[in-house]
Design the sequence.
């Protein structure tokens, strides 16, 4: 590494510099602001090349190297970039957010200051129905009339909670106690600083269709409007490999292999041996792993060898 | 380390075994239960002695070694013990708790399940007044009449919030959305697993008189009723050095030294040079660092050399 | 969770208890000993079910639940198990090991004690050749004669280094300085404590065929002889999904899909559009991503649509 | 926080910018280079003020706020600054360095590249004697003649090791195996990125007089030549409170208090009650905690009430 330059400028990303400090709106009253950042795609490459030393021919282009690192989960070079965001979001969203333990955090304190006088409100058209088969998700919307009623009740409850809070404060109750019955929809703010690797991990989980709706909106914005500008090559690789990639288990591989080698019949035998096809009262017994395999076969344009599971 | 035994029993702490699974009550409806643990004082000693190798005479008794480690912040041996707790606590308390990033956590999910139908309630005699000089604390209680009124309003608000939640669930709203206006006082539960070093760090911060009242109750119980039984020597050292110890800054040391060497006059000169004594409109200018030094002088039974700051 | 038992026994795994303290040999003079553990497959399930609450029917069998968690990377329940190992390994192996930052560590100190008088030695038949295409790996062995010579030189060098070390110690040189020229092959020892999730991550990386040979031997032993006994259901899922699973990128999916829908011709068009097939001087231009896709096609028993890349 | 500016410039520290990329020399062939940084003293203040919200009067000056945060171990605002260094250091020094788990790291790989052809050499005047009472330290120097001899042997051993390494490489041995007997004094390089809070923790431990000599030289340089320029207010507070501060245990406080209230006699009684003064065969029994208290009494210019321990 004797050929390291002895003078350096700080890496700068012009498209991101244009965003610094600008609140990008989310939900009815939330935002994400970029406060500062360190590094860029070039810093990922720079760190990866530490491993190669001076004697190494730089055969890889930057894009190829970044894609290689992402594909093979060589994650440390992505930790060499860091970003600091200023967030405004409802507390029930923050409750999930903060579970990611690898970030640095300073949250607005309702012990030192009065709580933010804003709660996230739901439009009458935005009440979502509980999904049937998927206990963590939602599906479809409530009708307009019921939605109207729920939004009305929500406003009343939030107003009532705010009134109770103000009354306590007015009587001199300690802020740390006065806040205790604020609704989870109350907005909070935080500075949140994280490295690029851990941010991508956060995005992979929180942009996912199984994530809570509100945190998905934040995650999607951070990914598409911030990371995509900050580190475009890294973002492209992330989208190709993590967001739009899929994984095959040993069982998946064996069934697909059998299908390609021996046709449907052979695949069915293998699937049975693997315990994926067990006969229940009506057709195949429910099997979550088989259901996921079927979705993957679909994605790969392969016919499901056992037909539609009868009666499922 | 050639003299390591080739058979081992798992360390066991009888006094803690008696507690396993028993809910220790906190607040009106919270608890802490010990689910499992790894190690004991003996495991701290065992790990510390890895550093000494076979040739070392075991001159230190276990207690002396543990105290030495604690005093000199040799923290890694304390990481060799681990405890798993089952907690039930209000969400506004959990919001602080979860900021400690070094633990393993599984929280009750209000996306998968209905929210716990219990919120922490405040007795009429338990409403605390905001402290004056200390924006984060509380001091004294509200009168009984006002307390009565606040507790009444609290119950109404919590009931109202629960009603709104049930209405949403009844109409089929997705659980992840229905929960959005639950009050922060709603109880949640979690499994929380942490090593002894990080637990002590948590306790040092959360048993402190500056900590939020409710989290202090949990922390104090965990310390006094669990850690004290689990690792009594470690607990004793922790109490002697962290809980009941104090720290002196360079400025503190210089002033105390001057006081002991040259008396009050010399101490005042030094304090002035250090910028601790500046004349304001009325007496000494407020100075937080001086105020803290004065408290320490008091604690050490040393007279404050500049007298009570005039007019402060 | 009101139906939690109010008494608990510590989870115990008999097959693992039989191993406690027994050194499992690795390399010529290394070992792994299980010192203690917390939890088992049952603890993973227990933690996962916190999320489901009392109202939930326990439809999943334990095995199914563990497999589901592993497949969908719900990692926190696996963090509820913890294991403590006593390791003896060469320092150049430890240098890689310690890069995993999520463990608790106490290493033998050569500042407090004399360095361990043992270095890892290489048998004449064990000298591996540098792999051609793969700069980090090895392939094949050196001939017996050269191996003999290298092993001889190794012994001499190690003896010489030990002699220099002893001379320094004899003259009273500080241990922290005397050790400075010990060879990386010198053995060290450590207590290493880690949760099951992070252990599996370690194993996924270090059992891999791209990992350094020596650390692979340790990782393989820990996986197959320890984790497989400690948490057999978790281990089975890990092997099915991580060790023997594979991942498909968006590009892989698109090519395979085209192949199944439109045959080879269509797949070639898509691969070209995706930049995977560019004509070079002799046949297709080298492309690492295409090479990896070809390996996956092979694994799935699909023919490579562009034939063997001409002249590559 | 509604008054947040909607445009921001990246914080910049001119005195540090002048250092970017310049290797600051350590030992005979090591260096530290600042590659990039995020934030400054102002970023610490900015993050701390998130907790205060819009309604708060900014009564604290920046310096006062930073000092308050440091004194009371409000550590999160310091995590909002980040620095990235390029290090060149001997492997035995790196072995200690890497134990700090909170940094991001990319190390030069001797699997991908040939090992760096440089080992740290010890001048004949630099051989240090093992300290007597303190098993981890060193004290005084070896005489010139013996030093001469040791330096000569060192050079021979390092040359021999390099020769063996080259021979293996020449015969085609895999790099990951060829390196196995390199001396610990061999230089390595790394990119190392860490936040300011964790960096200060590293410095507190590694600038300490008990730290290994070589890592102290790196730590001292990083503190005095880099952090002092980057965040001068933070550095000043760190030096006043951590480096030059001291801590008193409960026992220390009780003895000093007794001394100030009741004179030597009373202090001796208290010290006996606390178990600090036990009569041994010759004078007081050795007691490490008492010895540390005596050092603190000295520092505070207080006479040791029990006189010099007789016969110790």
Sequence:
């Amino acid at each position: 590494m004797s050929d390291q330059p002895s003078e350096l400028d700080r890496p700068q990303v012009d498209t991101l510099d244009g965003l610094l400090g600008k609140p990008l709106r989310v939900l009815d009253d939330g935002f994400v602001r970029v406060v500062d950042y360190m590094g860029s795609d070039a810093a990922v490459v720079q760190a990866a090349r530490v491993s190669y030393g001076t004697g190494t021919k730089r055969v890889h282009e930057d894009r190829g190297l970044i894609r290689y690192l992402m594909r093979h989960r060589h994650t440390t070079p992505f930790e060499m970039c860091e970003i600091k965001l200023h967030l405004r979001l409802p507390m029930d969203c923050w409750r999930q957010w903060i579970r990611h333990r690898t970030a640095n955090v300073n949250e607005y304190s309702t012990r030192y200051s009065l709580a933010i006088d804003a709660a996230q409100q739901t439009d009458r058209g935005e009440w979502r129905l509980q999904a049937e088969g998927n206990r963590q998700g939602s599906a479809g919307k409530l009708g307009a009339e019921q939605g109207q009623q729920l939004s009305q009740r929500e406003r009343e409850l939030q107003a009532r909670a705010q009134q109770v809070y103000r009354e306590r404060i007015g009587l001199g109750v300690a802020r740390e106690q006065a806040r205790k019955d604020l609704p989870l929809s109350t907005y909070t703010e935080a500075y949140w600083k994280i490295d690029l690797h851990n941010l991508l991990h956060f995005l992979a989980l929180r942009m996912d269709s199984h994530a809570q709706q509100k945190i998905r909106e934040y995650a999607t914005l951070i990914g598409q409007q911030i990371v995509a500008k900050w580190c475009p090559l890294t973002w492209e690789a992330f989208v190709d490999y993590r967001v739009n990639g899929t994984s095959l288990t040993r069982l998946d591989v064996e069934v697909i292999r059998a299908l390609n080698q021996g046709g449907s019949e052979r695949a069915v035998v293998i699937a049975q041996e693997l315990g994926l096809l067990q006969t229940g009262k009506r057709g195949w017994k429910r099997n979550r792993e088989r259901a996921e395999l079927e979705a993957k076969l679909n994605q790969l344009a392969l016919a499901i060898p056992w037909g539609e599971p009868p009666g499922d």
The CA atoms of residues 244 and 303 of chain B lie 21 Å apart. Chain B touches chain C through 55 residues (CB under 8 Å).
